[in-house]
Amino acid sequence: MRPKQWTKNAFVLAPLLFSGRAAQMASVEHALIGFAAFxxxxxxxxxxxxxxxxxxxxxxxxxxxxxxxxxxxxxxxxRAAAVMLAMTGVMTAWLVGPAVAGWVGLYLVLNVLYSxxxxxxxxxxxxxxxxxxxxxxxxxxxxVGVKSSVWLLVCGGLLSLYLGFAKRRxxxxxxxxxxxxxxxxxxxxxxxxxxxxxxxxxxVTIVAYLMYTLTSETAQRVGSDALSYGSVFVLxxxxxxxxxxxxxxxxxxxxxxxxxxxxxxxxxLWVAFxxxxxxxS
Length: 281
Prior knowledge:
Blueprint: H1 14-18, H2 25-52, H3 54-57, H4 67-70, H5 75-94, H6 98-116, H7 124-144, H8 150-175, H9 179-182, H10 191-215, H11 217-222, H12 231-247, H13 253-259, H14 261-279
């Protein structure tokens, strides 16, 4: 079920913070239920992928230790767990409303398509990963009953693309000549190509975030350009991550965020700064 990976589902809570509804207990409850539903759905996907990728995982230095690849859990048990977790995730989302259940269900369907077909198509594989994060934002918006901010979706999607391509670079670096054997699509990538893509995405993501802090409904609610001052945390965060990828051979987004204290502190300060601006009145 990979509980460490559940940190990705914090994207579900982002609309709660930026909508100004974090002070409303009903909205908080609905957002947390949506978060729990996504954790269940994501765990179903991980179990499903562990079955599909068990042969490739056995060629990976760390993924070979996963329960299915290592033989600790049978294929049948893993499949049963995936079905049960998926059904429980959708039913949990339905407690908030059909729209939330719909987004969670779409996430599951897209993941099945990704695992069986789309992950083998160069570039589209990472765009699918970004779509998963956008679906988290849409789920969070539906949970608290607000219209999704276009700029928030754009920023989340671009950031996810950046992290996804950085992950591909990490896999190329770690696996070397074995990369294509572990993930076939890696044969179509190269480190210089991925570095160029990351540079473009980094610039566009920063510009999109600045636009969000200056033109979104949240910025209008704050009543000044103060929201844009938080860009310093965003700049440091993405540059810190880029430093870690290139200087320490890291690249798995979740592990990098959880293990690097300066990056964790930056995320915490960014959340605290935005919360103070939005809820100070």
